[in-house]
Amino acid sequence: MITPHFPILQVVLPLIAAPVMVLARRGTLAWLLAVAVSWAGLYISLALLAQVADGGVISYAIGNWPPPWGIEYRIDRVNAFLLVLVSLIAAVVVVYSRASIGAEVPREQQYLFYAMYALCLAGLLGIAATGDAFNLFVFLEISSLSTYVLIAMGRDRRALMASYQYLIMGTIGATFYVIGVGLLYLMTGTLNMADMAARLQDVTEVRPVLAALAFITVGVCLKLALFPLHVWLPNAYAYAPSAVTAFLAATATKVSVYVLLRFYFSVFGASAVFAALPMGKILLLLSLAAMFIASAIAIFQADLKRLFAYSSVAQIGYITLGISFDSVTGLTAGIVHLFNHALTKGALFMLLGCIALRLGGVRFDNIRGIARVMPVTSFGIVLGGLSLIGVPATVGFVSKWYLVLAALESGQWWIALAIVLSSLLAVIYVWRFVEAAYFREPDPGIVKLKEAPLEMLVPAWLMIAGCIYFGLDASLTVDGASQAAATLLQGIR
Description:
By secondary structure, the chain is mostly helical. About 80% of the residues lie in helices and about 0% in strands.
């Protein structure tokens, strides 16, 4: 039976596909392989989610070395939820990428793009699946190194600078993370996270443990672009190819948030992080700063990709705000927003890629009157914008509703007010697009334009449809997020 090997197969398939793509050196074959491994990964992740729902935690020992001696892949409700998210986004974006990458990446480099895409997917899935702290670092580097190459493939020469900036910041983050893991290994003698959590309870010398917590927090927050450690993100999103921006915005930062959740609640324990230390207050302040400052900066951007990049920084603030409450409701809000924001921002960047395909860019001075010639694309962006605002019947409303509930549950009504006020800033930057696209006269040069190809529009609109469907019926996502939240608060058993 192949089913027991699903935890390793979802990582191995894209990992093997990448060198095959390089050897084949043919863009079409590479794309077909990328589609195959992405959709296979989606099937596997859904099967794992079903197994976890029925039978609890799945433990898979690599090479038949039992944990904690060997590397363990450990799947529970938390990372099963994340595996579905990453593989779902990958499966949709890879279909979209054929026309988008065909226009943005030279033909002779396209097979390299798909090879890096497969490596990045393998790294992200590996981060989610592994139960070994150092193995997580290895997958973190696999995904990061491939991401640097993907960003550098952008048409604008500034993509190289954005990639280099991300490389520097990513390397610093990875260094901080591995120093923290080294300190934990020094104190516990193990790298298996479940074993590490058990042994930390018997550690009496707390200063190295607190130092490890500090290093891991800073390192991971650099990766997830928590304000003010977000400086790499706007340029990376703005100058990368459209398919890369959509994929990264929907997955990379979300996986990094998962790493933070896993260490805070499963390894260190909520009591050590939030009771013994002021991490809740620190996260709260940084989250509020992201929600307001990043949204305010987004309002003044001249390029739509940069605008939504700063919006992503603000949305990450909502996710970490949920974590800061240290409650089931707060964690549910943060985890469900991982899914909801991935759908919304993935769809938005894919639709911006449709405009970029026709116009060559997405600056406000280029898109005047674009709704008259690309009405389907423009309306999709409006719906995605409404989700960012948190309008009822969209997934953004579900996230903010649970955040408000968590704030009121903790007796902090002023945070609920801050959530509402920060959403008004989103109204302003979304309205900027509406005003430019619908209420300005189009330039003569765009009158003859037409909609993007269906192979780009259909995947983007599938994501938009998800934003509406899961906004109207949130039972599936909220139930999954609440089960994941309960699992985290219980710790590794």
